[in-house]
Every structure is written in structure tokens, then in C-alpha cells.
Amino acid sequence: MKAPNRPFGRGPQILLTLAEHGPLSARGLTRMLTPTIQRKKLNEALGRLLRRNLIIKLHARLFGDGGIFYQINQNPKVWGEVSLMTGLATKSLFQPQFRSVELIHSEACAIWATALERLNPHSILLRDFSLRNSRMARQILLEVDNDIDLIPDLLIAVLSDDRKTLVSVAVEIERYMKTDLRTLIKLNRFAAGSRLDGVIWLCDNDGISERLKRLYNTRVKDRAHRINNYGSNFMLFQDECFPASIPTFSLQNAENKSVDFNLWIRELQSKNLHERFDAKFNDRGADHGRLQYA
């Protein structure tokens, strides 16, 4: 496969990205592709793939053509050519139907997944649609079959410092307020009914994040004995879920204290579950939350 920085190397890279993450807009692709690509060059590469019928447009009329998403053509007749360009097996190119309401959420998940993979290339990162088929994810989450709403959007796993166990973090992208009952079920499942070491909630606005904190602090944290030594730092919250061109973390713990993502992960990796205490987590200002690779 051609390197992205070689002539016509962007086409295979775009196809690989669409195959891994599903439909994406030009905005999302611009934030995910490396080396960075100018929008004009991206549009030219997308145009070539469209003319060859290897990708299709979704919702081209949405928002006056401003809501276009691109997807690998789901006609199996073109999969052989896509396979030759990418090295992917043809059977891996099938993608389920995406509803319009899911596209923006799925793209936000894809952008954050790419950012987190670059931040720690040695981690394992899984999207929600991969969790049911992952033995590791099933062991961490304990239950992935009964209710799709209880599956996190992203799951990150990294080795502990002693290399004996995996440290796992769920990432939730929360765009809408759900009922208290549904929210409490998920908060309790993550805190008390799983083997997760931490959870990050990336929220569309501060109204959603403040509500999550309130429910967690008043109805969940003190009753979740598995993690109550570090309950205030088990769940982190952010008021933005659609990252800028350079994704950043501005995380707060359940006590509204700013937390540095890298230091938080290091604390989880260096201590086992029973050695973690809220007082040991090193709080920093929000300006320390920028991803390392940015």
C-alpha cells in the first residue's frame, strides 16, 4: 500500500480509516488523517474515490450539503478493488446501516479513538461495535449482551506497571440527557458491576456533566465499595465532546477538581485497585490536560 505522503497515497489511507471507523465527514477525516491534509487535497482524493465508486455519500442534502458523510460502498462488487488498495479482507468491509442520528456521535467516537491511540500507541482501544466479539472486553465489562445502552463508546486497556494486569478505562460521549433511571443504571454498572479502573465522560455541555456528577456523587459513589477508596477520581468529566482540530482534555473529577489525564492514567497503572486513594491522585490545572502528541 502506498504511503500517505506519496502521490495518490491518500486514497488507501482514507479507505482504511472509513473501514475502521465507519462513515465520516470531511471535517472528521481532516482531524484524523496524518500527516495533516488540506481540505482541498482531501476533497480531490474523495472525488477520485467517488468517481471509482469505491465510496458513497450519505445524506448529501442534509444542512445544504454541509452534512455529507462518506462510507465505503457496501456493494460487494467493488470490495475486491478496495481490498487490493488496502490489504483488508473483503469480508471485513461490510458495515451495518447507520441511522442519521448516529453519524455525528459515531464520528465523535472515531476522532477521540484516533487521538487516544496516538497518545498511547501501546494501548488496546476498542469501539463499541467491537466489544461483543472481544473476550478481553467481556471479561472487563462482565456483561455485554443484554442492553446495548450499557456498553461504553470506547474501551482503552493498557498494561499495569508490573505488566501483570490490564488497566481499563471506559470513555462515554454523552450528547443528550437521559432519564435519571437509565443514567443511574449505567453509572452503577461501571462503578460496581464491572472490572473497569476508570471512566471518562465527554459531555456536550456543562448541564449534562453537572447532572452526571450530581447523580454519581449522591446515588452511586459511596455505595460502590469496589472503588470507594478513589471514588472521586474513578469518574472524570469534561464539558466538550466534539474536539477541535487538536483534541484536548479539560477533565474534572467528581469533586470539580481539574485532573491531568496523563498523571491520572499513570496512577491507575502504578497502583492496584486496593492501593488507590483519592489523596494520592495529583490534581493539576486544566491547562495540563493537552494530549501529549498535540
Describe this structure in words.
The chain is elongated and about 60 Å long. 37% of the residues lie in helices and 14% in strands. The protein has ten helices and nine strands. Helix 7 packs across helix 8. Residues 285-294 have low confidence and may be disordered. The strands form three sheets. It has a five-stranded mixed β-sheet. Strands 1-2 form a two-stranded antiparallel sheet. The chain has a two-stranded antiparallel ribbon with strand order 8-9. The protein is of the alpha/beta class and 294 residues long.
Summary, kept brief:
This protein has 294 residues and is of the alpha/beta class.
Instruction: State the strand order across the main sheet.
Output: 3-4-5-6-7
Uncertain stretches: 285-294
| Biggest β-sheet strands, sense, barrel | 5 strands, mixed
The count of strands amounts to: 9
- Averaging pLDDT over every residue, what do you get? 89
Give the H and E element order: HHHEEHHEHEEHEHHEEEH
Shape: elongated
Structural class by sheet pairing and helices: alpha/beta
**Rg from Cα:** 20 Å
Give helix % range: 25-40%
Compute the number of helices: 10
Distance linking N and C termini:
27 Å
What percentage of amino acids are in beta strands? 5-15%
